[in-house]
TrEMBL record:
Organism (species): Kitasatospora cystarginea
Gene3D superfamilies xrefs: HAD superfamily/HAD-like (3.40.50.1000)
Protein's UniProt name: Phosphonatase-like hydrolase
SUPFAM superfamilies registered for this protein in UniProt: HAD-like (SSF56784)
Pfam families: Hydrolase
Bilayer-spanning residue ranges: none
Length: 226
């Protein structure tokens, strides 16, 4: 199969189609403060480093690793989501340049588009509403909709099943993190494309399985057009 055979494109949101601008880190800092992790301490820095390294992973999974206690992990996740929602409501949410146009072109070319995230459904819906993107894609998925989040293949494979796509080789997975690339390779996607508008650089994207690295999502329709 060639790139032109792609029938389903699974796109990440924050850092890929939606500008992050440090919002994830800001929300994490608010969550850490809520849980009593003192800023400036070695523990605080270790946690921040882990958050940066695992960008793209399901957020509750990140907090379960950091706090190793389900109750504290859930409290941290709620604090994170509350802080992230406040940032969205304050106007700190924008599409990356060319993202909406790229999604529109992909669908005009006859490809189904699914938007995926490591956030909860509530946070994903808040972002979609803020951008006016409720109907921009064929499907939107969060980890709770599919079973597990990244780096597992559950979301792309769920998108494939729900859109009745014939083969994993007709699937493209696109994101800005190594976790997105691992998700793509584990799902058997024919195209696993990294973009340089988010968390991880080309070296990390390639190491985790990127078949292509693009400057931004705006370049994707041309790549798939052959």
């Amino acid at each position: 199969m060639t790139n032109t055979d792609i029938r389903l494109v699974v796109l990440d949101m924050a850092g890929t189609t939606v500008a992050d601008d440090g919002l994830v880190e800001q929300a994490f800092l608010a969550a850490a403060d809520r849980l009593g992790v003192e800023a400036g301490t070695e523990r605080h820095q270790q946690m921040l480093d882990y958050v940066r390294a695992t960008m793209g992973e399901s957020k509750i999974s990140v907090f379960r690793h950091l706090f190793e206690d389900e109750e504290r992990a859930q409290l941290a996740n709620v604090a994170f989501e509350t802080a992230y929602h406040d940032l969205i409501d304050a106007g700190h949410c924008a599409a990356l340049p060319g993202a909406a146009e790229a999604i529109g072109q992909l669908r005009a070319d006859g490809r189904a588009v699914a938007l995926t995230t490591g956030f909860s459904r509530a946070t994903q819906d808040r972002i979609l509403t803020a951008l006016g993107w409720q109907d921009i894609a064929d499907l939107t998925l969060c980890p709770a909709d599919a079973g597990r989040g990244r780096p597992y293949p559950d979301m792309p494979l769920t998108a494939l099943l729900r859109t009745r796509t014939d083969s994993v080789r007709q699937l493209a997975v696109v994101g800005d993190t190594g976790y997105d690339m691992l998700t793509g390779t584990r799902s058997g996607a024919g195209v696993v494309a990294g973009v340089l508008t988010g968390a991880h650089r080309e070296e990390r994207l390639r190491a985790d399985g990127a078949t292509h690295v693009l400057g931004s999502i705006a370049e994707l329709p041309a790549l798939l057009a052959g």
